[in-house]
Amino acid sequence: MLNSNLKKLLFTLILSAAVQFTYAQEKVEMADGLRSSGKIYVVVGVLLILFIGLFLFLISIDRKVSRLEKENRKD
Amino acid sequence: MKISWWKILCVILVLYTLIGGLLFDVPHKKILNESIRNIYFHVPMWFGMMVLFSISVVYSIKYLRNPSLLYDIQASAYARTGIVFGILGLITGALWANYTWGKAWSNDIKQLGAAMALLVYAAYFVLRNSMIDIDKRARVGAVYNIFAFAMLFPALWIVPRLVESLHPGGAGNPGADPRDMDARMRFIFWLGAVPGFILLGIWISTIIVRFRKIEDKNLLHA
């Protein structure tokens, strides 16, 4: 049951990945220059640092609440 | 910390969205240009908001069936995170619109609908905080939440279809217009961005709930 669902999902994923190559592209100006000069990776880096930082913050809050929960159970 | 599989999944999906959303190839469109990537970040806010408000109304209905303060705490926590997601969606949408539609706010029907929905939910908290009696606040809040939810989907999905809109998918077409997103984009959007940000919203909400449970433990165990 689960297996056939999983197969269906995998099949869908593979198909949708295949479809992507069939799309034709017209000439529209994009930030290719930004990409080729490598600066876009700086932005990606900044965002990764930001989000990893925010996640660490969230995890630390989560931990603090867990500790409070434990202390409260003792009382 | 309760390390749950879905929290790990949330971190992975959001970081995947950040990398894939910024670096993978996107369709080349006039006017939109690279700003098409905002779909990965702006739109999940709305999906997150809708899911969070849906969870909130479920807890409100549960409260009305079985008046336990815990349900009220859950309903208000999810509504609160939902509002935050909605406000972020509105601000990011205005920024995006400023550079593609020419104006941050062009009274587009979907902008108006979203603003209206947020005001309806803001009123939920105004109403709640206007009552000191916690049982009364919970009951009236739960009833109001159901009415607010009844407003939510017409304001975001139905009314924008009936009139002209700058948003894609206006005038009777599906919201996620296949002409705007190709298969690659849909892959990151539906499998990375949307579930990732929904899980993030749920994560934040559960922390608020756990905190409130400690704060109100005397009331909960009374």
Question: Which short descriptors sum up this protein?
Answer:
heterodimer, A: 75 residues, mainly alpha, 77% helix, flat, B: 222 residues, Four Helix Bundle (Hemerythrin (Met), subunit A), 7 helices, 74% helix, globular
Characterization of the model:
The complex is a heterodimer of chains A (75) and B (222). Chain A is 77% helix and 0% strand. Chain A is mainly α and 75 residues long. Chain A has a domain at 35-75. The longest helix of chain A is centred in the last third of the chain and has 35 residues, at 40-74. The mean pLDDT of chain A is 76. Chain B has one domain (5-220): Up-down Bundle (Four Helix Bundle (Hemerythrin (Met), subunit A)). In chain B, 74% of the residues lie in helices and 0% in strands. The longest helix of chain B has 33 residues, at 183-215. Chain B is globular, with a radius of gyration of 19 Å. Chain B starts with a helix and ends with a helix. The relative contact order of chain B is 0.18. The chains are: A mainly alpha (75), B mainly alpha (222). At the A-B interface, helix 1 and helix 3 of A face helix 1 and helix 6 of B.
SSE layout:
The complex is a heterodimer of chains A (75) and B (222).
Chain A: H1 2-19, H2 32-36, H3 40-74
Chain B: H1 5-23, H2 39-65, H3 69-100, H4 109-129, H5 134-162, H6 183-215, H7 217-220
Helix pairs in contact in B: 1-6, 2-3, 2-5, 2-6, 3-4, 3-6, 4-5
In short:
The complex is a heterodimer of chains A (75) and B (222). Chain A is mainly alpha-helical.
User: If you consult CATH, what is the topology of chain B?
Assistant: Four Helix Bundle (Hemerythrin (Met), subunit A)
| Greatest interface and its participating residue counts | A-B, 32 and 30 residues
Class from secondary-structure proportions of chain A: mainly alpha
Overall 3D geometry of chain A?
A: flat
The percentage of residues in β strands of chain B lies in: under 5%
Describe the main β-sheet of chain B briefly.
none
**Structural class by secondary-structure content of chain B:** mainly alpha
Strand/helix succession of chain B: HHHHHHH
State the oligomer: heterodimer
Number of domains of chain B: 1
Q: Can you tell me the CATH architecture of chain B?
A: Up-down Bundle
Poorly predicted regions of chain B are 172-176
